[in-house]
From TrEMBL:
<feature type="transmembrane region" description="Helical">
    <location>
        <begin position="47"/>
        <end position="65"/>
    </location>
</feature>
<dbReference type="InterPro" id="IPR009936">
    <property type="entry name" value="DUF1468"/>
</dbReference>
<protein>
    <recommendedName>
        <fullName>DUF1468 domain-containing protein</fullName>
    </recommendedName>
</protein>
<feature type="domain" description="DUF1468">
    <location>
        <begin position="18"/>
        <end position="149"/>
    </location>
</feature>
<keyword id="KW-0472">Membrane</keyword>
<feature type="transmembrane region" description="Helical">
    <location>
        <begin position="122"/>
        <end position="140"/>
    </location>
</feature>
<keyword id="KW-0812">Transmembrane</keyword>
<feature type="transmembrane region" description="Helical">
    <location>
        <begin position="14"/>
        <end position="35"/>
    </location>
</feature>
<dbReference type="Pfam" id="PF07331">
    <property type="entry name" value="TctB"/>
</dbReference>
<keyword id="KW-1133">Transmembrane helix</keyword>
<feature type="transmembrane region" description="Helical">
    <location>
        <begin position="85"/>
        <end position="110"/>
    </location>
</feature>
Amino acid sequence: MTQSPARTRPARSVLAGIAAFGALGAYVLVSSVGLGLWTSLGPGPGLFPFAMGAVLASMSVLWLLQELRRPSAAGDKADGGLVLAVVVSLVLLAALLDLLGFQLSMFLFLMYHLKIRGKRGWLSALLTALAGSVGAFYAFNYGLNVALPVSSIPVLNLIGL
């Protein structure tokens, strides 16, 4: 039985991924400075994106150093069905946000991924989806004063969705 030789160089696809994440991080860093990092009242609107851009750019550099030191083994191909399911569900989430509101749209999105795709139990999926949708809504709306979409359907809007 012969062993495959150890990789000596990172795969092009890995380097392309590192470059894409690094470029995105750099773009977010530069763009967020224009929003203002600090105001007389405290943190400005660009501080959080600046921090996230810095983290993304830094992680890209660390990933590159790791790949140069010890390239990862060639991986299996991505599951096309999973990728398609995630992309389609994200498009549907974006399309339904204004109609159903954040809470209901995110609840359905999370239930799909937890129960159908992730094969979690009903109780676990329900509790996690409720915490993720309703909890995030209240954290953003009332904790951070960032308005998330509410339902444009009068009946749903009447009950707080």
